[in-house]
Amino acid sequence: MKSRHAPPRAATMIESLRGLGYSVPTALADIVDNSVAAQAETVDLQFTWSGPASTVTILDDGNGMDEAELEAAMRLGGKSPLDKRDAHDLGRFGLGLKTASFSQCRRLTVASYRDGQTSCFRWDLDVIAAATDDGWHLLEGPAPESASLVGRLPRSRNGTLVVWEIMDRIVTPGFREQEFLDLIDSVERHLAMVFHRYLSGSSPRLRLTINGRPIQPWDPFLSNHPATWTSPLERIATRSGAVEVQCHVLPHRDKLDPRSYAEGAGPDGWTAQQGFYVYRNERLLLAGSWLGLGQGRSWTKEESHRLARIRLDITNSADADWKIDIRKSVARPPVELRDRLMRLAEDTRDRARRVFAHRGQVIRRADGSPVMQAWRAEHHVDGMRYRIECEHPAVRAVLDEAGPLEPQIRAMLSVIEQTIPVQRIWLDTAEARETPRAQYSGSAPAEVVSVLSVMYRNLIRRKGVAPAAAREQLLRTDPFDKFPELVAALPDEPA
User: What CATH number is associated with residue 294?
Assistant: First the structure.
């Protein structure tokens, strides 16, 4: 068979690889993956602002590499994605270190110290672009002006240092120091999410710092909050290994203090963070995606499902089946799993919608008795309508005492029903990314007690209901079922 040797042109190939679509946070997460695979316990990222000469370094205390290992690690495609990987390995394609770095900088230097020996190689895209032989010129040692940066690598223990210089994709014309500081914040939020399971617990497996400041983990599932609903862990056998799934419905805003609510929103906000969270070896690959699942068409991210988040763990032998890409940002479940995942997601989405609609409150009491709602929804052929519930005690009391004014009151109620600003509420919710306050949320106890007292007095004096029965009725009435302590404090003799 005739053939010709047709290697890619180095400069052209590398410039093409720069366009894979990494962001700075995702690129740095790929670098940290290598440190985790090298069993590092501490990884420190240093961002140094100096205009066009700004740098980023990543230093770990992992196993380090000797010269041959480092040369192999710097080679593009040094490992085949088909090779069997160690159980703790977070890589797959043998490209992450290089493509992630090239996406942001033109000079990549890596130095490693192992067993008393230091090795150092660098890729310089400007040197490759100027070469006349289309060669893949991996340079030995740091550039003369980079020697001080490589000097940050300790000689007292094993470890590896990665240096980004000439960061033309980051420090672009007009890029200022404030943008650089904002970039640091976005990197911190991303790493706190991606490696949160490594950073959590009383004895974390990994310590991540940025300019010496520890990164605190961000738990997408608010696992320690008592109002978070969590399903039992389910293990599903597949041809590429077991898949673990656990569903979560986060608390409604009314159940969270301001700090917890802000933290729960995550890097991209409550609505964007809903969906599946796909992990491999406890490293987050994909955050907040419905994975193309849905009935008829793929589900979209909607406000009503913003509290639904599902943890999904796969093994590092399942990459091909899940179509994991080089950037670790795309995942598609295999056909054999889609139906089961869809059923789990439908149940979780339904639970999340109920919590969202009822503000984290149940619409039935522990004894199974329903809570009287002030509004009811009616389905009609021409759409949904919302009606005031005239049997609600507050409304019923007015109608019973209205006398000749009853027609006017009912006309007023009809006007209120027909003019509910549904579109305005929907827009405010979608644009402000928060739910409008209602049901005395955040109200002072005195405000709630004032209304409670009026209704309580009416039940006893006008309806002849016994005090204990009146309190029980209020506990079955929206929104006073949310204030059992205030209801219980109502006196037997109302003022």
Answer: 3.30.230
